[in-house]
Fold these 2 entries.
Entry 1:
Amino acid sequence: MATQKIKRGYRKTRYILYKETLIDFKEQFWSFLGSFVGIGILSYIQTKHFSGNDAVYLIGSFGASSVLVYGIIQSPFSQPRNLIGGHLISAFIGVSVNYLIPNTVWIAAPLAVSLSIVFMQITKTLHPPGGATALIAIIGSEKIKSLGYWYLVSPTLVGVFILFVTALIFNNMTPSRQYPSHSTYHKYYHKIRKRLTKQ
């Protein structure tokens, strides 16, 4: 009996490892293209409006979001509610903590990240890069800190919106990819798409 369980477990493990090591070139192509265009648009806006090291539109957490919304599109963390809500909640908490505890990074940084996690859990908008968005509001450049609550609008909302729209376009170009993965969202997306193509 124990031997059968071990053999069954071994077969399952081999199958999972086999599936995980398969290379799907089409999937990788669309992941590359979507992330390239999404981050490319943000980079273009950045270079047109800001010079030097003032990376205001191009915050680091958008790179991590790109991995999720273009590379692991079926993940619950990748869905629109999580992408948009997670970043906005975390940005708000990061800026608020920075106002309350402006010069004590060793308290402000962990507090902002921890509160972001809890509030994302409460609102069911958990998006791992959101923690970085909160942290950037604390440890970012003076240019970012001087934005105050405008940090929620630009770069956070603007950047997230660009990533989201790009994900909608590139993640739905083939029948094998569906974004958002929730059937209700997808049904509405296809209705809108049909109406637009008829016109």
Entry 2:
Amino acid sequence: MLWPMIAIALGFAGLAVLGVLAVRVFVEVRRLARQVGATSERIQRASEDLERAAVPLASRMHEAGRD
């Protein structure tokens, strides 16, 4: 009777450890997703800034080509 009780206790402890690790992974994945979202927004803003900066340069290059 002792061995089945030990096996059940160890099984429960193993499941508890897996549960704790699953929660930690879930929290880290959510944090990573937030960081990826923020980085994506920063890249989009930088791309828009670059596009706005390129328009005057392109028009000057186009005018210089007509000369």
